């Protein structure tokens, strides 16, 4: 039952924050935070806040900030609401907590959910207005201008403007003014348009506080940035829009002539003179032929009605008719009508004259003798002599759309690899890279060097041994810690399936990465754990020439993980007999809670997963009829003896399966039992080997 007084609410909250955030606990945590906000909102004005209440709230303040970054939107909203009420009512009493509040809220402003961004932004605005003047407040706000994420840089100008308005009289000109100057210049030269627009308002507010520093910022900007800054609505010296528009129109308007009618008449006279000159030159210069000029001549009766031809060159219609065959040339009467001879046609045509005005059309300048020479007997003009035209060189064949698409996809792949080199690829970028590899199987990568580089970049960005001891607050993606690992793992599986002839850059590096990923996400989403298990099974079943080096790499990684987890948790260790029950009960504890998970809780899960991989590899050795090196046998046997002495109850079955598979590899059998010193271990292994080999 939830408490009614503030002491009950704070005590219950303190207890809930000591537990991990689960499906059952987050709703209770949300109701408690809502009750805490109600206590603040129902407080009477100017009433005294109890000292013990302030101390208890400050004690759970770090947990409230952590809860504000939760993936559950309603829980995050209630946490931000509580933070706003705390800052509004405590006022200057939270100045000692600014280094805790502001970095966490600024990080939430850069989250992937818009609702969480808005809630965190509102909380920071309340803190800026009510926390009182503090150099740490200016420091964190100015540092937000250099944040790697876009939303914090977008909100930061508004925070700085509030600080300048609220604490103008208390600001230190020697420290705060240079910090504001650098931050504003950073915002005005930012690559995002929204950041630059918001910073302009903060600039003019800073200009009213320190004009000299503001002019220094303006002088260091380029011409376009200066014009945009001066045209900003927050500029107090900016002219009104009506005045600016009238000045602009007056400057751009052309000079009017003294008489508009005289100008129009002069233009008409010019056009008439140009048309007359062009008509005079038209009879001397032939125009190019058009498709409308190729028309069939009419009958001979129509030709007699035409005026007689002049001796000067005239415009003549050109008819393009097919060349007659030899048989048709000898039989002109086969055309179905009586046709006069070629000489009579020529004679009649010479009697025609050209009209004075000829409609504009293309024509050929042909003399009488040349026309008669060109024309064939019994036919109209069958061919025309034209000047040879210059043709442009042949174009290369057009590329297919598929070729262009692949070229674009390859360019996108190169951009993704460049982002992987800088470790700046976000969750959406990993998803697009996975889709790129999935939709273009075996088509984007044609060289092993590129395949090797992409493979190594994916492995390095997926996991590292340093991530095992890293706290949750320092992880790259606070909202989805397992999302990128899942996407990268699926991409690696696609690469394995699409390029089966190309081995991984280093033997066993993928299986080692899966071990580390299983350690970092010991109780993550079911899809991530399933992807890790499926990927390990696929790699173990397809390992070929590099089988023996792969076993060495997996064994090295497993020993390193065990050492790191055991060393960093001095209280709970696998060798402690009184904590075995604690380990077995807490092995499924989530590592996504607000507290850093206990390392020993993950150790049995990781060791069991590593032993499954080693068992699969040893079975692969037997199926391929290969033999281990003597040094490998010594290492594996020593590791088995260590497991028998350390894990006496938690993963006992997995350890015995490992001993059975190792017994099948190390020959002869007496040599295998020499590795174990305790007689009880030998008897136990012998029993399990007999049971495994029995048909019943």
TrEMBL record:
Residue ranges of the region described as Disordered: 265-408
GO-annotated molecular function: microtubule binding
Compositional bias ranges of the Basic residues kind: 386-398
This protein's GO CC annotations: cytoplasmic microtubule; microtubule organizing center; mitotic spindle midzone; spindle microtubule
Sequence ranges of Polar residues compositional bias: 273-283, 340-373
Self-association and partners: Interacts with microtubules.
Purpose: Microtubule binding protein that promotes the stabilization of dynamic microtubules. Required for mitotic spindle formation.
Protein name per UniProt: TOG domain-containing protein
Organism: Cladophialophora immunda
Organism taxonomic ancestry: Eukaryota, Fungi, Dikarya, Ascomycota, Pezizomycotina
